[in-house]
Amino acid sequence: MNFTLTEEQEMIRQAARDFAHTELLPGVIERDETQQFPSEQVKKMGELGFMGMMVDPEYGGSGLDTLSYVLTMEELSKVDASSSVIVSVNNSLVCWGLETFGSEEQKEKYLKKLASGEIIGAFCLSEPEAGSDATSQKTTAIDKGDHYVLNGTKNWITNGSSASVYLVIAQTHIEKGYKGINALIVEKGMPGFEIGPKENKLGIRGSDTHSLIFNDVKIPKENRIGGDGFGFKFAMKTLAGGRIGIAAQALGIAAGAYELAKNYSKERRAFGTEISNHQAIAFKLADMHTQIEAARYLVYKAAWDKDQDNDYDISGAMAKLYASQVAMETTVEAVQIFGGNGFVKEYHVERMMRDAKITQIYEGTSEIQKIVISRSILKK
Asked: Could you report the per-residue pLDDT of 290-319, keeping only the tens digit for each?
């Protein structure tokens, strides 16, 4: 086992860290407070190659490995999880799905702009009655010969109003169940496509989350990804990789909160000494550090599996399950170490605690991850 990062990976991590502190940190509290989408920051991340990190340079991407992407996600998430989830969705769910399963025409038309950050994308699977149960799609795409007619509603869509391209999962052949589901590329501005109000969320408030409404939207046949009925498999394959990105986000949130808490404990004095000298605080930091390191190597292992073309379903699920748990526990303890100040926005950790919770929910809840893991281990 070799746990040493390459020189290139170290440079990428440092570049992401520098960007997070110089570009994301200023204004992060205000963006959270006002639910402001980080438009300028996203544009700059596109210029740095963060929006299409694993995409072949032929299609405008950076051509990097999954581990480099995970390192970037970790560093961005230490500072601003709202910005990092925008990167995650565009990379893991949109660009990867298009590059892996899209036609050459689709890659030329959409992937190049997405990978370069010229535009951003959204992945549309969840519905009012189809969150964890992704097979219960009520959105329909009726086959009309040379096009589909799309009707339905999608919920909790990241980049909902900021995206230009939407990958929409819809049911075409109801009688076939999940084998009758298709994945369609929908463009903003298509007649009948409406964007609902922005959700007022607990965390990742700088990320714009919306419901999407489709009323008789005409989608050309050439906008279908893969063969007829491939949509559910497309969604599951794409989400398996997406979990690695969210696991890295959870890891970054935890690591960022821990670093703030550790530094604060060396400055804050109580009972005549820095609070880091009190065993009650020192032991909290020891537990936090140990759990974060364990989560880090689960996340890195999942990324390595993906890069080695190994089956990464179980490693990705374990990484997301554990890293999200560590993010939640670490941020709660960070608030505790800050005491009263932890409840105040200017110290950042209360925002991190709010941001951490969603990592246990989106791109597969913790309960869904346990289903994936248990099914995998019980097959052996």
From this structure: 999 999 999 999 999 999 999 999 999 999
Burial of 335: CB neighbours in 10 Å, binned 0-12, 13-18, 19+ = buried
Closest to 298 measured CA to CA, from 358, 250, 238: 250
d(CA 274, CA 253): 25
Instruction: Please state, in angstroms and rounded to a whole number, the distance separating the CA atoms of residues 298 and 327.
Output: 14
Q: How many whole angstroms separate alpha carbon 292 and alpha carbon 319?
A: 11
| Tokens linked to 203 | 């965390």
Q: How confident is the model at residue 203 (pLDDT cuts 50, 70, 90)?
A: very high
DSSP H stretches of helix in 177-312: 231-267, 279-307
Report how far residue 321's alpha carbon sits from residue 83's, in angstroms, rounded to the nearest whole number: 21
Distance CA 20, CA 200 (A): 25
**How far is 140 from 73, CA to CA, in rounded Å?**
34
Q: Which of 23, 99, 350, 363 is labelled catalytic? A: 363
Secondary structure class of 158 (helix, strand, coil): strand
Distances (CA, A) of 253 to 75, 85, 95, 260, 350: 9, 11, 24, 11, 11
Residue 29: burial class (beta carbons within 10 Å; 0-12, 13-18, 19+) = middle
pTM over 0.90? The answer is yes
Q: Are 69 and 303 in contact (CB under 8 A)?
A: yes
**Is residue 342 within 8 Å of residue 283, measured between CB atoms?**
no
Pair type for strands 209-220 and 269-270 = unpaired
Q: Annotated catalytic, 363?
A: yes
